[in-house]
Task: structure prediction
Amino acid sequence: MLIKCFLVTEKAVSLLEKNILTAIVDIRARKPDIKKEIERLFNVEVEKVNTLITPKGEKKAYIKLKPQYSAEEILSKLGVF
Result:
């Protein structure tokens, strides 16, 4: 399992308007792997993935979905909203 958890911070929620999910992922996860995992788990298409290492040493991924899919819908299916 590459995706550890989805973040619901103020910034993460504001990014939902741009159709971007924010998640903490495995430190060894590569962008193509994260893309495949999200596409497989939620049956959506991913436009692109950006990652960064946080000061805590965690890897954070910003996952932008293609316009025909809704990032908010995914989080509501997971029961985040």
